[in-house]
Amino acid sequence: MSGCPVEATLSVIGGKWKIVILWRLARGTMRFNELQRAISPITRKMLTEQLRELESDNLIVRTVYPVVPPKVEYSLSEYGKTFIPVMQSMAQWGLVHLERNA
Amino acid sequence: MSGCPVEATLSVIGGKWKIVILWRLARGTMRFNELQRAISPITRKMLTEQLRELESDNLIVRTVYPVVPPKVEYSLSEYGKTFIPVMQSMAQWGLVHLERNA
DNA sequence: TGACATAGTACCCAAAAAGTAACTGTAAGG
DNA sequence: CCTTACAGTTACTTTTTGGGTACTATGTCA
Fold first, then answer.
1. Where is the HTH hxlR-type domain (chains A, B) (predicted)?
2. What is the domain extent for residue B15?
3. In whole angstroms, what is the distance from residue A94 CA to residue A90 CA?
4. Which of the residues A2, A6, A51, A91 has the least number of beta carbons within 10 Å of its own beta carbon?
5. Which CA-bearing residue is nearest the C1' of D18?
6. pLDDT digits (tens, 9 = 90+) for B38-83
């Protein structure tokens, strides 16, 4: 919107849960309910919304298996993987921050 | 809250404008109205709130000069400066993202 | 026959975040 | 004497966000 790179990043990961979701998926593919349990107390509604947005930004890939009960897997796209270094630098700083405020 | 380093980082910079403010201050000290003009359309209220929170997290320093009209300067604290690399990696990724979606 | 599991959607309401407008004090400049 | 500048604060309204509940489909298991 503004052309500022930092704001561009924020617009993609601005959602309350997006980075947490991406951070989980960085460790590997997960199913919907798996994500929900991992990130609790996120609600199904919020999880769905955030996943849809991440998908439309091409950061994650949604794979539906036509089975019953339904099976849907989420994973980072190749593009989404380019975001891992950013999250790593966040994690590193967060670690220091946690120690500092311990 | 959760002990997750990424979430810890998010809790500090979660405000809508915080990173933008920090990113500005990374280039140097700024006065209140200077910041407001630079970050428009942020409102005075929001700017005040975000600055106060950043200050109480010790990321920025507020310096008041007892003159009329008032003069208040904001700058990154030493601790705040440790966040610059994180913002740089965000900016880098944002640049690629902007090009990709150009 | 009936419950269970998965991955959602639809709708309504409450809470939180953000915006708006008016007000503060004081000195300088016209 | 009236206006402008700065750096806010306060009260009120609006918008956005998030939560709760109920509902969907259908194959398997008991």
1. 4-102
2. 5-100
3. 6
4. A2
5. A46
6. 998 899 999 999 999 999 999 999 999 999 999 999 999 999 999 9
